[in-house]
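Fig. S4 source data, part A: sequence.
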Amino acid sequence: MRNMGGLRRHMPITWATMWIGTLAIAGIWPFAGFFSKDEIIWYAGAAAVGPHAAWYKLIWVLALAVRC
């Protein structure tokens, strides 16, 4: 395990693209993962009906506040 490292020195383009991919999958702004998660949360909130709709909207607002 100690000898498994130094990828950044030998393959800098691969290292950079792996970091960009990691940030996109994590949903960090301005990468694609952020916008897809935002759309999923939005459509789920728009479809909330019934007795628990108000709770969902409260959780949605809290999720937006924490994410920014």
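Fig. S4 source data, part B ends here. The mean pLDDT is 80.
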